[in-house]
Design brief:
The complex is a heterodimer of chains A (about 350) and B (about 550). Chain A has helices at about 15-30, 45-60, 65-75, 95-100, 120-130, 150-160, 180-185, 200-210, 215-225, 225-235, 240-255, 260-275, 280-295, 310-315, 320-340, 345-355; strands at about 35-40, 105-110, 140-145, 170-175, 190. By secondary structure, chain A is of the alpha/beta class. With about 550 residues, chain B is α/β, with parallel strands linked by helices. Chain B has helices at about 5-10, 20-35, 50-65, 75-85, 100-110, 135-145, 165, 180-195, 200-210, 215-225, 235-240, 245-260, 260-275, 280-295, 310-320, 325-345, 345-360, 365-390, 400-425, 430-445, 450-455, 475-480, 485-500, 510-530, 535-545, and strands spanning about 40-45, 90-95, 120-125, 150-155, 170-175, 460-465, 465-470, 505-510. The radius of gyration of chain B is 42 Å and the shape is flat. The chains are: A alpha/beta (about 350), B alpha/beta (about 550). Chains A and B meet through helix 1, helix 5, helix 6, helix 7 and strand 5 of A and helix 10, helix 13, helix 16 and helix 17 of B.
């Protein structure tokens, strides 16, 4: 994530106007709840937003009695709209700089150690929270990837989450509420983060990373709404030319049924050699089949728009049921690869299945 | 003091403020006034229904300055300290983080000391299900017979994780889910107190999202209140809660039921770009189709389905044209595919495929309709056959039914084979029994069950337009043959068989009964003779035996 986050600022977070608006409203009204849960797919700026919120709460440039003033206004009635100004951390004061560099004693960031957040980490946190914050106006605990808490860790957090000590708020980030204990979910206020739209991603890639427009388009599709994924795709060391890669993949998949077993196996081998981009390659194949299905019903909704004619031609030759079963095949191969099966073997099986007419 | 959320700000402080848990609070107040409060109490129930709250109120009531009172004063030192969470004699322990046996041992060490200034020393262990087995076991002896000044109160969401030995030592109180109406009413009161105006519709929506938990409801309400500037509109609430609007769900289900895939894809796209959770969508859809199915099946809908009446009307409208089986087919598919949506790397793609698969699926027919169709098919065959016989020029078969062509082909074959015979039906040389045999075989081809009943019958007389059939067999056979439906069939078949209208007379054979009677009498007589035979009586005398059975050879 750190690759593209030069500063923690609300406005640096792309395509999340609504959650940002909610957060700034909370700041303005001075009604920041003690437990927040940020929900959204990977790499859309949840942790950045949490850091920005922590900075805004403690920024020296924002008057400390600003909040109480707002509180007074709120208790009297609605805030007149002309008084609403967006609060953003200055990023220059002592406090902001220390938070940004991760040296602030009262901003605690909890990350999974290994695959899980363990109960030991939560116990340690509870111990720390029993003491008063050193200097911060509002101590902020950020638990990122809260869905990785194992059940005992989650349960250990419950009491603190329900009634944290004074001047302390907890921010949890997770992919989905369904991955968390219901008792945790019910104690938090939820803020949803949206998948970033393709258009936004495209312009981000073009403007900030000088990407070729055609390639930006494809990467924006493959990243599927996640900024960090898009950035890592464009920044990876042995960068892949996704334009030619996609065409190559589609060509190979389309001609599979007509080819000899030997060349099918060769295709599987080529796929398995580029392990680092295998996941994306399989996604390309899946999207291709998905487009073939969708094209039959609603040609406007296809994802690979630039290949529209080709999709339409190919779509006419295939039956829906066989296409759906092919998508299933790709999905099960993806699952198997995640479960650490023999990569080459899995891919060969997949290719043979895809080759069936 | 930082901002207090509603759920904490308005935490009930007396028993009567606790909502919808009368069965617990009344028991406890009665127990307090009667002085029969158990020394170990377990509260269990879903999240956010008031377990911890009731535990605290109970602690206050027991330690209030005038001794245990049903209504704590909330003014004395003890009450204030408990509310603030700083009471020395009330220990609120987080069972989940203090779950090891060492911590329980420490607790046991401290149990024996008298309370500092209150009547009781009260241990509230929240999330008690997280204690380790060893910790539970270490607690057993103390829990069974604690010192008189000690009380234990446990609270948990998962009572089944607690060992049976602990459960049997506690008085257990189960909390219930709070219904939508009470939650929304309570929220209305709170809104009035807070000076915030929210439409009742929106409150109901929040209450429904809360899923029976007051804390969830209040968190959501808090969220709505603190996130909004100015007036709170319904759209705003929908937006903040991330609830997929009922209208969208209705549109989606309508499109599904009408089979319009493009519309379904459009709606999905809309939902996805609004950032909604696809898994949530799937869950919502399952619930929606469950409701649709119930609306279709059940008369008294409002008891099973928790939705406003105008939505029920809408649902009724939607399912009017759809068969029950199709709905349950969709529901089945959604259930089956829910797992794949949950695990998919691309939930959106997965859900799209579910819908496309749904359209691939043919609506199944309910069994009764299938049987009816089969019957019709059979009737068709029969009718086509008679048509064929009556007016030979008529085209016999319908093109669309492959099965029927085959079967009726066979039928027509037999009809043709009968042709020469029919031309001279009353051949005087023809043996009557032979005629009957052939007639029977035509019966058994088309009406096997009737033929079985007619099997033992014979033709009594056959003359001109009169055919007298004598039915041989038991009462059941006779009744079957005499049935209106069957006699019509017999008449028809015979008319076809002989090539002219026949009058059928069905007579039952009565003699058979007499014959049976005779046989019985004869057997009885033989038995008597055998028994009274001198040889037999002597043998019984000599061997001191008895007669088991007499068999007639």
């Amino acid at each position: 994530m750190s690759v593209y986050e030069s500063t923690f600022e609300f406005k640096s977070i792309l395509g999340q106007e609504q959650p940002i608006r909610l957060l700034t409203t909370l700041l303005q009204n001075g009604t920041i709840p003690h437990a927040l849960l940020f929900i959204g797919i990977e790499g859309v700026g949840k942790r950045t937003a949490a850091m920005a919120l922590a900075m805004a709460c403690n920024c020296k440039a924002i008057e400390p009695d600003h909040f109480s003033e707002r509180m007074k206004i709120r208790s009297h009635g609605n805030i007149p709209s002309d008084q609403i100004t967006t609060i953003s951390p200055c990023g220059r004061c002592h406090s902001c700089r220390r938070i940004e560099s991760g040296n602030h004693p009262d901003i605690i960031l909890l990350k999974p150690s290994g695959p899980f957040i363990r109960i030991g980490q939560i116990r340690e946190l509870c111990g720390t929270l029993a003491m008063k914050p050193y200097e911060a106006r509002l101590r902020v605990v950020i638990i990122s990837d809260a869905h990785t808490m194992n059940p005992s860790a989650g349960n250990a957090l419950l009491k603190v989450l329900e009634e944290p000590p004074d001047r302390t708020i907890l921010i949890l980030t997770a992919l989905q509420t369904s991955d968390l204990l219901p008792t945790i979910v019910s104690r938090c206020q939820h803020i949803r983060f949206y998948p970033v739209s393709r258009k936004n991603l495209e312009s981000l890639l073009i403007q900030r990373y000088n990407a070729n427009p055609d390639e930006a388009k494809i990467i924006a599709i493959l990243a599927n709404g996640s900024v960090s994924k898009a950035v890592s795709m464009i920044n990876s060391i042995n960068r892949v030319n996704w334009i030619s890669r996609r065409i190559w993949l589609i060509n190979e998949v389309e001609t599979l049924p007509a080819r000899s077993i030997g060349s099918r196996m060769a295709f599987a081998e080529k796929l398995s050699k580029r392990k680092e981009i295998l996941a994306e390659s399989l996604e390309v194949i899946k999207f291709w089949f998905r487009d073939l299905v969708v094209c039959k019903y609603h040609p406007e909704k296809i994802i690979n728009r630039d290949l529209k004619d080709r999709i339409q031609r190919a779509s006419k030759k295939m039956k829906v049921t066989s296409l759906i079963s092919k998508i299933d095949d790709v999905e099960s191969a993806q699952k198997n690869i995640q479960a650490n099966t023999n990569l080459r073997l899995t891919l060969e099986v997949l290719i043979m299945r895809l080759a069936k007419v | 003091m930082s901002y207090l959320v509603l759920a904490r700000k308005y935490r009930p402080q007396t028993f009567d403020q606790v909502l919808k848990q009368d069965h617990v609070t009344r028991t406890l107040t009665n127990a307090i006034s009667a002085g029969r409060v158990a020394h170990a109490i377990l509260f269990s129930g879903p999240r956010g229904t008031g377990k911890t709250t009731v535990a605290r109120i109970l602690a206050k009531a027991m330690n209030c300055k005038d001794g245990p009172v049903p209504v704590p004063c909330n003014e004395c030192r003890s009450c204030r300290e408990i509310t603030a969470g700083s009471a020395v004699d009330v220990f609120e322990i987080d069972g989940a983080s203090n779950n090891s046996v060492d911590q329980i041992r420490e607790l046991r060490e401290n149990v024996k000391y008298m309370p500092a200034h209150s009547l009781y020393k009260i241990y509230i262990i929240d999330e008690v299900h997280m204690l380790s087995i060893a910790a539970f076991n270490a607690l057993l002896k103390t829990l069974e017979e604690p010192p008189p000044h000690v009380m234990f109160v446990f609270a948990t969401t998962e009572p089944r994780k607690i060992p049976i030995t602990i459960l049997s030592r506690c008085q257990r109180h189960d909390f219930r889910r709070i219904d939508v109406e009470s939650i929304s009413k309570h929220m209305e009161e709170l809104c009035a107190k807070e000076g915030v105006k929210i439409a009742v519709d929106s409150l109901e929506l929040i209450a429904r999202e809360a899923g029976g938990s007051m804390r969830d409801g209040l968190s959501l309400l808090d969220h709505v209140m603190s996130c909004s500037q100015g007036a709170i509109t319904h759209e705003h609430v929908l937006n903040i809660l991330g609830v997929i609007d009922r209208e969208i769900i209705f549109n989606l289900s309508a499109a599904i039921l009408r089979g319009q895939i493009p519309e379904v894809l459009d709606i999905l796209d809309e939902i996805y770009s609004a950032g909604h959770d696809m898994k949530k969508l799937c869950a919502d859809l399952i619930e929606h189709f469950r409701n649709l199915l119930l609306v279709k099946m059940v008369k008294k809908i409002d008891r099973l389905v928790d939705i406003p009446s105008h939505e029920i009307d809408l649902m009724l409208d939607q399912v009017k044209e759809v068969s029950r089986t199709f709905l349950s087919q969709i529901l089945d598919l959604l259930f089956k595919e829910e797992v794949s949506i949950l695990t998919s790397t691309q939930p959106r793609l997965a859900i799209e495929m579910v819908f496309i698969r749904m359209f691939q699926m043919q609506p199944a027919l309910p069994i009764d309709i299938l049987i009816e169709k089969l019957d019709n098919l059979r009737k068709d065959i029969y009718e086509t056959r008679t048509d064929f016989r009556d007016t030979e020029s008529k085209p016999v078969f319908k093109d669309n039914e492959e099965g029927s062509i085959k079967t009726s082909g066979e039928v027509s074959g037999t009809a043709e084979s009968m042709e020469p015979f029919i031309s001279a039906p009353l051949d005087p040389n023809e043996n009557i029994d032979r005629v009957w045999e052939r007639l029977l075989s035509t019966f058994s081809e088309k009406y096997p069950s009737l033929a079985a009943n007619l099997k033992n019958s014979t033709i009594k007389s056959l003359s001109g337009h009169r055919l007298e059939i004598e039915v041989n067999g038991n009462d059941f056979n006779i009744n079957m043959v005499r049935r209106n439906k069957n006699s019509v069939i017999i008449k028809k078949v015979c008319s076809d068989f002989f090539g002219k209208d026949m009058e059928i007379i069905i007579a039952a054979k009565k003699i058979q009964n007499h014959e049976n009677q005779d046989k019985k009498d004869h057997a009885e007589r033989l038995k008597q003779e055998a028994l009274s035979h001198p040889l037999v009586t002597d043998a019984i005398d000599i061997f001191n035996g008895n007669i088991v059975d007499v068999k007639i050879l």
